[in-house]
Amino acid sequence: PHTTSSSKHQQQQPVPTHATLSHTLKMPQDAQQFFNSIPFTTYYILILIFSLTVLATFGISTPLHYYFSSSLIFRHFQLWRLITSIFFLGPFGFNFIISFLIFLQYSKETEEDVCNGNAADYIWCLSIGAMALYLIGGWLLGIPFLGSCLLMYLVYIKCNMTPDVNLTLMFVPIQVKAVYFPWALLLLHVAMGQSPWVDLVGIFAGHVFYYLHHLYPKMYQKQILWTPSFLYKVFPPQSVGGGRVSGFSQAGGVQTAGGAAGNRVQNPFRSGHNWGSGGRRLRDA
Q1: Coil, strand or helix: which one is 270?
Q2: What's the rounded Cα separation, in Å, for the pair 35 and 30?
C-alpha cells in the first residue's frame, strides 16, 4: 500500500530515464504533413501526455493525483490512476522533452510497423504492457510513476523486431545493434547513477509481449496472442494500399492475401471470440 506522505511523492516525481535518442526523428518540411503522419492511437496518447504535464506544471492538478497506488485504485476506486501513472512523464523541462520525443518515435514505429497501423492491435499491445507494469513495477516494486517503464517497453519491442539495425546513443558516439540497444541504455543509466529497476521492469514487460507475439508463434507454429474482437468493433481496421489490415503480422509487417481487389489481409492474431458475449464465436470480418 502506498500511504506515504505528500512530500515523499513530490520527491518521487519521475525523472525520465531515457535521456537518449536512438536516431533523429525525420520531420517533413510541412508541419501539417508531419502531424498527419502520426498514427491514430499515438496521436491521442501524445495529447494525453501533454495535457497531464500542463495540468501538473501549472498547478491545476498535482502528481499526487497521478501516481500508482493499489490501495487507492482498488479500495477507493480511483481508477484514473491506471492511466495517469503510466502516461505522466513529469513536469515541463529538458527530461520531459526528451521523453516526449522518445515516446513519439517508438510509439509511432510500434503502431505502424508491429501493429500495421491498427489502433485496436496497438491498444491491446499497450494493455498487455500496462498489466505487466502494474503488477511488477507498481504493485511489487512500488514504483509510483510508470511512464519511463513504458518507454523502455516500447523501445524493447521495436528493437527486437528490427534486431540488426544499428542505433546510436545520444551523447555517446557508439553504434549498437538494435537487439542490444535496451541493454546499452540500461548500462548508460546505471553509469549516470540511476536505478536499474525502472529499465528492467520495462524490459521484462517488453519481453513478455515479444515472446507472445513473435517467439512463441515462430517456435511452435501456433498463435496465442489475440486482440479482443470488441476492440475491432470500436476501432475498425484501417486500409493500407487498398487492402484491409486487420491484425498483428507475425513478422511485424503487413500481410496480404493476394493482389486482387477485394482480397483480405491475413490476420493470424485476430481473435475468433467475442469477448463481450460470453465467448460466442464470430466470423472474421
Answers
A1: strand
A2: 9
In the DSSP assignment, the letter for residue 227 is B
Distance CA 9, CA 144 (A): 8
Per-residue pLDDT of the chain (285 residues; tens, 9 = 90+): 444 444 444 444 444 444 444 444 555 557 778 788 899 999 999 999 999 999 999 999 999 999 999 999 999 999 999 999 999 999 999 999 999 999 999 999 999 999 999 999 999 999 999 999 999 999 999 999 999 999 999 999 999 999 999 988 776 778 899 999 999 999 988 988 889 999 999 999 999 999 999 999 999 999 888 999 999 999 988 644 333 344 454 444 334 333 333 333 334 344 433 434 333 333 343
Contact 265, 285 (CB under 8 A): no
Cell (9 digits) for 91? 513536469
State the Rg of the chain over Cα. 19
Q: What is the largest CA-CA distance in the chain?
A: 63
The DSSP code for 20 is -
CA distance 193 to 185: 13
CA distance 16 to 33: 29
Whole-number Å distance between alpha carbons of 242 and 265: 10
- Contact of 246 with 231, CB cutoff 8 Å: no
Instruction: Supply angle C-alpha 144, 55, 112, rounded to 5.
Output: 75
SS3 for 183?
helix
- Inter-residue contact 151 to 189 (CB < 8 Å): no
Distance CA 32, CA 34 (A): 5
Backbone angles phi, psi at 227, to 5 degrees: -80, 125
Compute the distance between CA of residue 238 and CA of residue 67 in angstroms, rounded to an integer.
34
